[in-house]
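Hello,

Following up on my earlier ticket. Below are the four sequence lines again, exactly as submitted.
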Amino acid sequence: MSADPDPTLRLLWRHVLPSDGTAPKRGRRPKVSVDDVVDAAIELADRDGLDALSMRGLAERVGVGAMSLYTYVAGRDDLVVLMVDQVVGRADLPPMTGDLRARLTLVAEVQLADHRAHPWLLDVGGVRAWLGPNVADRYEWQLSAVEGVGLDDLEMDQTITLVTGFAANVARAEHAVRRTERESGMTDAEWWEANYEALAEVMSHREYPIAGRVGSAAGEAYQAGRDPRRELEFGLARILDGLEAHLGR
Amino acid sequence: MSADPDPTLRLLWRHVLPSDGTAPKRGRRPKVSVDDVVDAAIELADRDGLDALSMRGLAERVGVGAMSLYTYVAGRDDLVVLMVDQVVGRADLPPMTGDLRARLTLVAEVQLADHRAHPWLLDVGGVRAWLGPNVADRYEWQLSAVEGVGLDDLEMDQTITLVTGFAANVARAEHAVRRTERESGMTDAEWWEANYEALAEVMSHREYPIAGRVGSAAGEAYQAGRDPRRELEFGLARILDGLEAHLGR
DNA sequence: TACTTTCTCGTACATCGTACGGAACAAATG
DNA sequence: CATTTGTTCCGTACGATGTACGAGAAAGTA
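Thanks for your patience. The regenerated structure is below:
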């Protein structure tokens, strides 16, 4: 009665799975490998974004007919799942040393670095079978940062979710600017230059006492530096302070 | 030399802008209004998601030819910008009372409620001209929660970014489950039922001492209750504790 | 009535994911 | 060697998508 197991699951774990004689002996030889396809897809998505990744374009890049891709991958959605696990597996995870602050900072920085290098990760919606080996390894590594510090199991998961989610949001804010610059062909500064007058007129009809002051302060600071550590700093400091307060009680 | 101002900007502020005689007197009468179009688009996106929102489908819903939409809106991307501002304007913002904790909790809860009611907000990438009147009002309201508590301007912006980003991430996690259930036609429980065996076999080749324990604990708690307040609770408590520690120093 | 202005929308095109089915190939079998 | 069987390759085709283009329809003005 229960449905068949998800075939993409075996594909995800293809490298850790023992080759239990399932390698076909007869039949035509594949021109490329699943890893070739996924690696090329990652390369294209890194360059042009996830939306611009098309099966036809990928096929040409790999040197194969468009429909041939479907012998390697069940479809575009499943390809994205494989891309996520593959790209997560590339980063090497440094050993967990130092105190809790240092360890969680490391978790956040690795997460930020991944999302900066592969912004399309932010566009990947919730797909079920994210449970690839590399994602699982990453999760285990992240959890090791908070193991034994006094949190219960649920709190450990929530802490990792909180920290990695925040790092992803920092990357998201950065990426939003880059994307609109690319899509509109205008620098952020150019847009403001062109629209300052109209915006001032339009906003003159309402009062924004706080937002006017804070927004311009944030805008200036934002334009000043793009140091990822700095952008992480404030939020992460608050989160870590709060966590220590929770543990020290 | 500077480019023309963004026409969508005037469209965003169409309600606060005085009708400076720009209302056309001659010519054929429009069958519908911009608000009709945007409201219908929101309705469709609420039901089927942002990806499923097509210009043709929207046109049929509004009772208009597909290409007629382009008299009201510059294109699909600009439509989404209008949808965001329109939907943000619907929520009524309660007055800011109570202490800092209560106020920021309110900010987070409103943010979560919006994203739960309109999950497609999570799929809206960074578009430049988010500066609609309702988004501006919302930002002003959010900032009023931390005005005068001892933060400098930059920290005020970062605090709001931190809190609202966290609330959005909670909504994102919820939405990911709903989406995959809809797209795959399988309940989360059904998927695990069908894939438990295969997953166990596949993961038996590696050791996940912490993730195995924590993951199942989180899974059980996750399946138990879906109270949004509970899901907000832990992370928000940490953030607020950390913020108070920062201010009390 | 004729002209001008504005909105309406049918047609067309490029691009997308992918269903389908036969051709091409490699090993096993006779 | 000839045939069968299993596997991969991929050309063609279909339905959707966003939207450029331009002709037609309606409403006010002269």
